Amino acid sequence: MTATLHIEESADVSRRTRLLQLLSDGETHSGEVLAEQLGVTRAAVWKLISVLRDMGVDIASHARKGYQLPHAMQLYDAARIAALLDPAVRAQLQRIDVLLTVGSTNQYVSEHPANHNTHAVLCVAELQPDGRGRRGRAWLAPFGSGICMSLGYWFDSMPSGFSALTLVVGVALIRALHGVGLKEAKLKWPNDVVIHGRKLAGVLTEMRGEAAGPTHVVIGVGCNLRIPEATRTQLAQSQTHLADLHDELGDQTPDRNVLVAAFTVQLLECMNLFAREGFIAFIHEWQRYDALRDAEVKVLHGEQVLLGVARGVTEDGSLLIETPQGIQRFTSAEVSLRAGGDDETATRHR
Question: Does the annotation mark 338 as catalytic?
């Protein structure tokens, strides 16, 4: 079976996407040449540019020269993503949906799930203005700056240790990132990928179903590829410090389609194993990548503030904190490292 490729095809969306494809090399393109290539007037090009700017795309205008994106960018390409997947993986995907803009890829996949007889559906979007994070936080993802993807997956029934699903997703992301050359990536409980203490990627998992029957989960992944300085500054003011792949890998940074394919392969492989064996199959690997292990931390749990030492996770994904009163377990909390008695900034969860 081959995954169906779905690409938005309305005339307006098609023209906007085509214009972005023409600008995606990062070079300056004159309005006259763009109009000729698109088969429209120069006034129509100006209107398309205005609409894209209103959508959040940073397009510069250079007098008597033309229009330009901040740097070269790879747009999502459903056919390329599919071609990067081996047949066994493609057979598990009912659809690969590539969208120019959507409020939230998680919401889209929730509303357009795969048929139950097919395990999964994949959605990626260039722009996601209503992207959500853990605890309802916004997820900022300027155009072309990273990965915004969601994978919908059907479990025939909830696996053992189902509450650790987000931790399993983290292992899948680490495997994929290691595969593209980022060997220093680690996991910060419960749902962040970090490098050098800064947030690289986050996860938001959502589900519907019954304990004794089929369960549909939506796995949202946001990964920073090349974050604009303005966005870094904005988030730093709220005490969120970012890493991105371009900072770490430079010219070896993978094409976004390569990264989406790598994430998809590892996510499906891990979900399949999780369905058979539960979190016990991943716990030792997760512990190996644990960025908090044996570190002094501060835990915010509701109104409670607790200081202690992180001691890994349990078979249901709970965080263990050693305190003067003994070991305490947390299924949900905000955790930040403490260095030299001062709190490091807690990363924000997707």
Answer: yes
